[in-house]
Structure formats: C-alpha cells, structure tokens
Amino acid sequence: MLTMSTRSVRLVCLLICSLAISKTDSTKANELLKQEKHADHAYFVDITIVQNAVSKGAVCLDGSPPAYHLDPGFGHGVRNWIILLSGGAWCRNTTDCLNRSKTDLGSSTLMLPFIFLGIFSKSKTENPDFYNWNKVFVRYCDGGAFTGDIENVDSATNLHFRGARIFDAIIEDLLAKGLKDAKNAILSGGSANGYPAMLYCDHFHSLLPKAHRVKCLVDAGYFIRVKNPLLTNVFESIFKDVVTLHGSTKVLPKSCTSRMKPELCFFPENIQRDIKTPFFTVMSAFDSYQVNSIIGSDIGECIQARNCTENQNNAFKELRSEFLRALPKANDPKQRGVFIDSFNHHTQLELWWNKINATPVNNLTTIKVFGDCYYDRKYSYVIDEHDLPLPVYLYNNGTLKSRG
Ligand SMILES: *[C@@H]1O[C@H](CO)[C@@H](O)[C@H](O)[C@H]1NC(C)=O
Ligand SMILES: *[C@@H]1O[C@H](CO)[C@@H](O)[C@H](O)[C@H]1NC(C)=O
Ligand SMILES: *[C@@H]1O[C@H](CO)[C@@H](O)[C@H](O)[C@H]1NC(C)=O
Ligand SMILES: *[C@@H]1O[C@H](CO)[C@@H](O)[C@H](O)[C@H]1NC(C)=O
Ligand SMILES: *[C@@H]1O[C@H](CO)[C@@H](O)[C@H](O)[C@H]1NC(C)=O
C-alpha cells in the first residue's frame, strides 16, 4: 500500500489510515468507497489483537502484540479459509525500523479496523469463488516479511525482530478458531509478503490434515534478481540487510541456504522449485513497485503519458524477459499457475479484484483464472504478450480504469 502511486489508492489509504473509525465514520467511509471505487461490497472489519502471543515473544517491532482481522465464513463457506498476509515493503536498519515502529506497520497500538474488498468481498457476483469463506487479513508489523526471529531486544531502540514467531502465533490462534477443520484453504500474501506465502506454504499445508485443497497465492510479490547492467539489482541489497537485521536465515529453506547466500533465498525464484503444495502467482510483468525499484522511481510518469524513451523501453523489455525467465516454468500449471498482465500497477487481490477495475489478459481476469485453478476446473499459465507496460488510467470521478 505504501508504495502505490495512483490517486485512488491514496484515497483508500486516506480512508483506511487516517480515520478514527467510529461506526458512523466507517459508514461514511463505506459510502465514499462505494461511490468512488465501485466497491459496492466493501466493509470494515474489527481488529483481533492476539494478546497471548506476547508470552511467546511473538510481537511487533515496538513489542506490542500482533493482530489480524477475521470475518467469519457463512453458508457453504464455513469450513473454507483464506488468509492474506498484508504487504508493506521491509525495514532494513534500526533507523528505518524505529520509524516504522511508530506507525501501524510496526505497532498494533496504532491499527484501526480494516476495509475488506476484492477477494474479501461478500458479493457472490463480484467474488464468486470465495465470497462466503472465512477471511483473515493478517497485519504486517515486523518489517521483515514474517521471517525475523531474534531473541534479544535491541537495547538502544527497544525494537523486536520476531516476524517468524508472529506467523506461528497467528496461525495457532486461527487453528483454534476453526482453521484446523478447514476443508479448503489458501495462504496468500501481497507484495513484500508474497514471499512468506511461499516460504510457509508447505508448513501451512501440513497443519491442515483434514483439508481437501490447500493452495498458496502470491500477489505481486515475485521480485527478481536482475542481471542486466541496464537494471538495478536493488532487491539483493535490501534482502541482505533484512536477513541480517531480522536474523531470518534460520527460517529460510535449508534446501536453498545450502546452495547459496541467505539473501538470495529471499528471492522467490530460488525457493519455488522445492515447494510441494500448488501455488499460483499473480503479478504484472511491469509491476509498479518492481519497475520503480529496478528502473527508476519516477518511471510511472512516462508510462502514463506514453512517452518513455527508447532506452527506457529497452529497460522494460529486458526487465520483462528476466521476470518471465525467473517465473516457474509453464510445464506444470496445476502446481504452478501464473497470471501475468502488463499494466503498470501493484497487487490485484483487493482494489483490482472486481469487474470494473480488473486488469485483463486476452479477456481473462485473475478472478476467473485463479478461481478455476483453485477449484481444479482449469489450470492456466497466462502471460500477456505486450512487451511494454500499459498505463492504468484513473478517471476524475475516482474510477480506476485500465486501457490497452
Ligand atoms: C536505512 O535504510 C533507509 C532505506 O530503507 C536508508 O535510506 C537509510 O540511509 C538507512 N540508514 C542507515 C543508517 O543505514
Ligand atoms: C519515517 O516515516 C514517515 C511516515 O511515518 C515517512 O514519511 C518518513 O520518510 C520516514 N523517514 C525515514 C527516514 O524513513
Ligand atoms: C511526457 O508527457 C507528459 C504529459 O504530456 C509531459 O508532461 C512530459 O514533459 C513529457 N515528457 C517528455 C520527456 O517528453
Ligand atoms: C470477452 O468475454 C465476454 C464475457 O465472457 C464475452 O461476452 C466477449 O465476447 C469476450 N470478448 C472477446 C473479444 O473475446
Ligand atoms: C467515471 O468516468 C468514466 C469515464 O468518463 C465513466 O465511464 C464512468 O461511468 C464514470 N463513473 C461514475 C460512477 O460516474
């Protein structure tokens, strides 16, 4: 959320982040969202603070307990669970993490009710395959993508690096609330937390012996290690700092760390082949977070104005081909489905998961393709053929509209 640039996202962030939400305010915010976003079925869900996680040392950066938002399933969905690990980049040094610990990305004392929409919508037409599931939005407050596990509290700052313990404590809490009897389940994660949705995918599966279908879903979190000198290999240096600061190495897969440096095991491309549970990747080949990080933070402007230079276009083409090479191969879509569009946006499960905002590929949407794959109706490996980014337009009335 932090890094998205369109006005509509800021609008929603304003609604989510800055309202002191009373019942009246949330009704007002809901009305606004409905008008502005065509998000007719958006609703606020209260926060659940996991108090008993504290005794396990599973705490946010500032030492406060971790938290999630749970909306119970209904009808045929009562034994189906989708868990979404919310995104929000990483903090890589104590200055950065201290700053973060004073926001809702580092402290549950600052978290408010959260808006549910998209794949968390309760509308059968908008969200046909998951509308009646138990829906859990896990708040991100450790800064290390749920991988940290350092016993000592930083004495100078009182910071805690305990993301891996948070993941365990939250799942344990949910198991007791009915997740253990799940029939169908999805572990998903957006942006920075697409990675832990892969990292913990098999472990999550192993906790649900009664389930018929367990699959994982990575939303705009397949960041790559670029090799071409036209591009900046920025994620490798970020991951090196994150792994060091948060003590992540021990939770990374041994099958990877035995072959390469731990920071390289933070790249999805280097752990994907050892995951046994099916997982699905949704992302744009020109994901705005990845493009901004690797090509330049203001690159979105020329994409929107359709006047990028030849050098910039070459960088896009190179980034795209490196990205496609890093993805799981096409030969086993049952285990490794993908939906790769070309729009310059970031994440698809929330604002973009409805008929109006969906960013299609050949008339297909993520909603249909992922739903078909999850329910074993049809497996797909969908990659849009455009080799340059498509702009995402935002109309004055707040409607986000994508155009080819
Ligand atoms: C901490 O990280 C931020 C970026 O995340 C960077 O701007 C800053 O220079 C770093 N500070 C130190 C002391 O390394
Ligand atoms: C600290 O956080 C604020 C937002 O809370 C942000 O605007 C600012 O840039 C951050 N400063 C650093 C040094 O990261
Ligand atoms: C690209 O188009 C935008 C909008 O028309 C304009 O503001 C910008 O100056 C143009 N950039 C270049 C490099 O021509
Ligand atoms: C796209 O899908 C819609 C609904 O399934 C269909 O009505 C339409 O004809 C399709 N368009 C193309 C170009 O395939
Ligand atoms: C917003 O503007 C677009 C483009 O002009 C239009 O198609 C759409 O219907 C408008 N939406 C609303 C709610 O007015």
From TrEMBL:
InterPro entries: PAE/NOTUM (IPR004963). Keywords: Cell wall, Cell wall biogenesis/degradation, Hydrolase, Secreted, Signal. Its EC number is 3.1.1.-. It is found in: Secreted, Cell wall. The keyword NAD does not apply. Pfam families: PAE. It is an enzyme of class 3 (hydrolase). The keyword Coiled coil does not apply. Residues 1-29 form the signal peptide. Transmembrane segments: none annotated. Belongs to the pectinacetylesterase family. Hydrolyzes acetyl esters in homogalacturonan regions of pectin. In type I primary cell wall, galacturonic acid residues of pectin can be acetylated at the O-2 and O-3 positions. Decreasing the degree of acetylation of pectin gels in vitro alters their physical properties. This is Pectin acetylesterase.
